[in-house]
Amino acid sequence: ITGVICAALVAVVIMPAASARPAAAAPVPTARELSAVTLIGGLVLVAVLLLWQRFDLPQPMQMAISALVVLDRDLGTLRHRGRQRVVGCLLGGGFGLAAMAAGGASLGVWLGLLGLGLFLFSVLHHGGGPSAYVGTQGGLAVIITLVAGPAPPASIMPVVDRLTGATLGVLLLVLTTTVVMQGMLQPGRLAGR
User: Fold this and answer.
1) CB under 8 Å, gap of 24 or more: what pairs does 176-181 form?
2) H-type helices in the chain, by residue range?
3) Residues 45, 47: Cα–Cα separation, whole Å
4) What digits encode the pLDDT tens for the residues 125-181?
5) Residues 67-117 pLDDT 10s
């Protein structure tokens, strides 16, 4: 309910009126772009499972979700969205951890800080511009940090695990995408000419 109230307040108070002209549709992806995105998505999921099995990494599901959410056919867009996801997770997670320290076990303070964090990141998200996705991810990180059950979280370790999983997922995706795209752009290099 807190998130819905914060989103409604932002929509009524801050959001500008919608423009009459819809945004232009993205061009249809080529067969090569679809092949690249499919290959990258599959490789990232396999890599997440292998890394999780080998190193017992925290939150493999969070890693996979984070990687696939920012997957894009354009490497520049993917890197931009990945950076914004990591920055949003760090800002929202930092806010959440500070709120955990300040709020203690008080339910009223916890709810107030949760609402404040969601409101602040909703303003950033709905403000538009090139950094709006930071607000989206920051808001999600606030929720991940502060909502672990029906009461304030008792420990920060599950929170740190989830935030680490999200960050590692994005880093793995950017690495995999860079390798695959280099191979597709310069196929002779991988074949050993």
Assistant:
1) 176/40, 176/43, 176/44, 176/47, 177/40, 177/71, 177/75, 177/78, 178/75, 180/36, 180/39, 180/40, 180/43, 181/36, 181/75
2) 2-13, 31-55, 60-69, 75-103, 107-126, 132-146, 157-185, 187-191
3) 5
4) 888 788 888 998 899 888 888 887 777 777 778 777 777 887 788 888 888 888 887
5) 888 888 777 788 888 888 889 988 998 998 888 888 767 778 888 898 899
